[in-house]
């Protein structure tokens, strides 16, 4: 398949919408002009990548109505359709999917060009600020993978584990008071990292796993 295979069905579609359509005009793959002389620019590509995005954005100097046309079935639209459409909309572009293999060429407009501003979710912003404020220091390198990230929660669990390692079996209430950590009981009970052993009602000690893993996490937390 070549890009030119996408042209006939798309031209038919645009013609039915009342446009006069011509290919390869001033380096643009497709130009469609309406009766009021409004111009639609469409760039045909076999895949979605940074090159075509930059090219399409550059076409906004010609018209406010710029689309990218791609064949049906490209991998990125199968796996990340919502995110791709969101990105295209944020750039002020439109996206068209063309099934040139259909008996009668099928065209699907996934989004039209226009001003777009994503809605911010205050809850997500609040959670982000909460984690930022509660995290002690800056123990992670930016760009690190999510595996092994030191979060504020892990730091709290680490503080409890260090206390138990030094004090031995202790009541949760005593640890909470010593560390001034109101969530101590929940952290011990949930035992997310397997660092604690429950001995009885409200009494805990550090587990064998905790003794093994804590030194490494202490080192990472201090780096």
Task: Lay out the secondary structure.
Layout: H1 7-16, E1 20-25, E2 28-33, E3 39-44, H2 50-59, E4 65-71, H3 75-79, H4 81-90, E5 94-99, E6 106-111, H5 122-134, H6 152-167, E7 170-171, H7 172-179, H8 184-190, E8 196-200, E9 203-206, H9 208-222
Model description:
The protein is of the alpha+beta class and 223 residues long. The chain folds into 2 domains: 3-111, Dna-directed Rna Polymerases I, Ii, And Iii 27 Kd Polypeptide, Chain: A, domain 1; 135-222, Arc Repressor Mutant, subunit A. The chain has 9 helices and 9 strands. The protein has a 6-stranded mixed beta sheet, with helices on both faces. The longest helix is centred in the C-terminal third of the chain and has 16 residues, at 152-167. The radius of gyration is 29 Å and the shape is rod-shaped. The protein starts with 6 loop residues before the first helix and ends with a helix.
Low-confidence runs of at least 5 consecutive residues: none
What's the domain count?
2
Kindly report the average pLDDT value: 88
User: Share of helix among residues?
Assistant: 40-55%
**CATH fold-level topology of the largest domain:** Dna-directed Rna Polymerases I, Ii, And Iii 27 Kd Polypeptide, Chain: A, domain 1
Q: Give me the oligomer status.
A: single chain
Number of strands: 9
The rounded Rg comes to 29 Å
In DSSP terms, counting alpha (H) and pi (I) runs of 4 or more, how many helices? 9
SSE class: alpha+beta
